[in-house]
Amino acid sequence: MFDEEIGMTESRKRTKDFVQSVDINNDDRLFSFLTQIPDLPYAAYGADPLDSVKASISLFKKRLSSPKSEALGLEDKNRRLLGVGAYGLLGFDSKHFKAPMGCIDPIFISRQANEAGIRKLFKTCIKNLDALRCGHAYMRIPTGDLRYCRIAFSSGFYLADTSIEYILDFRKKPFLPSITPDKRIKIRMAGKEDNKELLSLTRRIFCNYIGRFHQDNWFDQKSAAELYVKWMKNSLAGELATNILVAELNGKLVGFITLKIESELEQIIKIRLGEGALVGVDPKARGQGIHLLMMKDAIRWFSHRVDILKMVTLANNFPPQNIWTQLGFKISSSFHTLHIRINNKH
Questions:
Q1: Domain 167-334, architecture per CATH
Q2: For the chain, which residues make up each domain, given as ranges?
Q3: pTM (two decimals)
């Protein structure tokens, strides 16, 4: 959408870097550029480096499959790529919050890129989202990239939350935790008869949740909580979950874990990946070992279906992290989610 030029001085040598559109499907530079990026997605899972590159390209293609999206590249005067990012509007979020919302995701930046160039890439994405009348956007950055965080903050972004990803690798150690029976608690797969109660339970669990939407006063708090209810609705419909594990306490539904298998990803990285995507326990039933029992059953369910099971939570959400580490999970990555408010003047 834009072809912009920036002049900068670095190491006493003046260069010119550009931000312009990149054709993800036909630009031969992209593959070579991504092979130089450390810690690509899925590298922590033991994926082959070239498969990690292919998976990263698939992330771009997925983003660009939505309308009003574009990939931008940061180039030096010799057209060498120093960074690539995709921006676009978020259809589901925009419809839910009744306002145009967008993202800059994925984004990869070379360590050879200097601050002025990175800032130009960020600002060009923001400028293009503004042209689409987008009022709010997010961007995710690995927690180790403090330089990029600093540049993002100076570009108008602010920290919304920090998340930690844990993985359990069934290839390294077959792990089937023992389950101590508790007559009060029953763990089972959800049936259609549970749909109504699961939606009600999700609403109770997330009404006071402290996530990135709840902490940002740009969002209506009720709408922020209802986003998780829609997540559960889509999980029940099979769009966001393969199955759903539920917990009963004295016959009452008090917890759930949505079980998801990333079948499309397996074709690229040759690793079967599973995720406990949405997890919750009724506030009135916490502290009785329900999360632990659900996780043990989830591990057994995933153990003969996937190679790796991942779980993600907020960095300051300590109770589930204590349980996961007890069960053999290891931290694989962490990332900041940054928000920005875009002041449209159209």
A1: 3-Layer(aba) Sandwich (3.40)
A2: 4-156, 167-334
A3: 0.90
